[in-house]
Amino acid sequence: MSNLGDMQSLASSISAMTSPFRNYLNDLYEKYKSFNDGAIADYIPELTLAKPEWFGICVVTTDGQMFEVGECDQLFTIQSISKAFVFGLALEDHGREYVNSKVGVEPTGEAFNSIVLDEVTNRPYNPMVNAGAIATTDLIKGNNSTERLKRLLEMFKRYTGRDHEINVPVFLSEKSTGNRNRAMSYLMLNFGMVGDKIEDTLDIYFQQCSIMVNARDLAMMSATLANGGVNPVTQERALDERYVQDVISVMLTCGMYDGSGEWLYRIGIPAKSGVGGGITAVAPGKLGVGTFSPLLDAKGNSLRGIKVCEDLSRDFGLHLFNVAKPDRDLAAWIDGSEGDSW
Amino acid sequence: MPKVVSIHSYRGGTGKSNFTANLATTVALQGYRVGVVDTDLPSPGIHNLFSLELEATDKTLNNYLWGDTPIEETAYDVSANVGVENNGKLYLVPSSFQADDIARILKNGYDVKLMNDGFRRLVKELQLDYLFIDTHPGLSKETFLSIAISHVLILILRPDKQDYQGTAVTIDVARQLKVRKMLLVINKVYKTLNRDALKQKVEETYNEKVAGVFPLSEDLVQLASEGVFCVKYPEHPVSEEFHKVAQQIQEV
């Protein structure tokens, strides 16, 4: 029996390598490889070590098929992408009502590092701005910071199916230059929105941002959300079904920093970006996209990643509110019944 | 639309490279733009048939797979070597026959996906009508890949028991990979055998079409080693058999 299984699994991986959908992704890679606009994040020196030519695209479908082109093994720090997933864990730890009492879900239109709290409720506006993310990390349960951090790492492992490490130089840089985040935390402490173990929480927050991932991990993470919280390859549950919609909703409204409105209008795939150069994008019920290219626009979003998501959304009708028949039928391009692009 | 044709056999020594060279040349002589890729990285050889001196070539398929060079720069125009003129073109992408290069491929492997991407790029850049892939015998990841991307898979077998069994396995794999079109070719057939009966028997055994039956003869072996047979002896019945196979590919 195992032979038959091996044959099927090899045949399926070969089919994924040669399917018209992967050829389509390869064409996108070729199309945007020479697109050199944007700049590498430089607010901490460690991030400037990234190479501008790095570029990877990975798509994982909800039935676990994986398509990858370019540098999908290259590791980089997850940065703000972690915020969406930690929000999910906070919801599992405390439930919707309590989490919402500490962090709002309203897009700000302000930059990610803005120091603003809701004047009436004193809450940070949403879990995707730094203040809201720190308040969210503060909610993660555990007897001590080691246990809390381990719970975070275990959660990411459920999403990606593999162990993750923390980039220590990036973590230390973030920590030593993180006074703005520190100031925000004390402001929130003043309003009683976070606990008093501020330095512990900030350490975990800086560490969560320094987790090393690759484009494949990001695709697995969003495919897991697209698949109702269950990793489509390992079949392990990463997030309680009830909270999948919460995570995807805040990605949709706040995931692309202060570019979220335009992203929703033009692309319409709930997504979260990080200044390390990653984007994870969720087409619910269909697939997850992970892209990596460290050249960022002024808002901190990966420019090649935006282009890839824009093309995918348009060509396969992945915009959440699309009702028109797309140019290309996703299922047919994946199984090869359409799109023989030789 | 461009067509990709893989030529494969389960075992070595079936005459795969000779067959590929003759078929590709036959098609190119009809005025098509044709590419041939030697993916037999562990034991390359087809360059000899096209009189391409590998000593004079500094770039091979290996360099593309190592990321040193775009694939189109590893393609050599061998049209003149085999008398292809006018609109027709024949390009060859050879594999390195340097021991070090072969060892590097065996030791480190390579990303099989690059084959797929490279073939597509080659077809686009050289505006090919046909791409022929000469494979390494047996089953491997690259064999699977070339089967999966082919519009036509040609399986060569000799009329003996080992080839029969191996071909059955290969056909099984090809069907699992949802190959679009499969053609069988029987090579090295003794003159004493009844060719029509053999053809019928093979077709019944595998439920696939036999596109051509080629004889075994010492003359042929000797003549073939000197270059592309069908160029030198265009009127020979063997050359006519290549025309028949070429026609069946074009009809797919």
Condensed summary:
The complex is a heterodimer of chains A (342) and B (252). Chain A is an alpha+beta fold and 342 residues long.
Overview of the molecule:
The complex is a heterodimer of chains A (342) and B (252). Chain A has 342 residues and is α+β, with helices and mostly antiparallel strands. Chain A folds into two domains: 18-79 and 211-335, DD-peptidase/beta-lactamase superfamily (Beta-lactamase); 82-209, Beta-lactamase, CATH 3.40.710. Chain A has helices at residues 2-18, 20-33, 81-94, 96-102, 130-138, 145-160, 168-176, 179-190, 198-209, 215-226, 241-254, 260-266, 303-316, 330-335; strands at residues 56-61, 66-70, 76-77, 212-213, 271-273, 278-283, 287-292. Chain A has a five-stranded antiparallel beta sheet with strand order 2-1-7-6-5. In chain A, helix 3 (81-94) packs across helix 4 (96-102) and helix 3 (81-94) runs antiparallel to helix 11 (241-254). The longest helix of chain A is centred in the N-terminal third of the chain and has 17 residues, at 2-18. The model of chain A has no long low-confidence stretch (mean pLDDT 94). Chain B is of the alpha/beta class. Chain B has a single domain (3-251), classed as 3-Layer(aba) Sandwich (Rossmann fold), CATH 3.40.50. Helix content of chain B is 43%, strand content 18%. Chain B has eleven helices and eight strands. Chain B has helices at residues 16-29, 46-49, 61-65, 99-108, 113-125, 141-149, 161-176, 195-206, 218-224, 229-232, 237-251; strands at residues 3-8, 33-38, 76-77, 89-93, 130-134, 152-157, 182-189, 209-215. An eight-stranded mixed beta sheet of chain B has the order 3-4-2-5-1-6-7-8, with helices on both faces. In chain B, helix 1 (16-29) crosses helix 11. The longest helix of chain B is centred in the last third of the chain and has 16 residues, at 161-176. The radius of gyration of chain B is 17 Å and the shape is globular. The N and C termini of chain B lie close together (11 Å). The interface between A and B is medium-sized, with 17 and 20 residues.
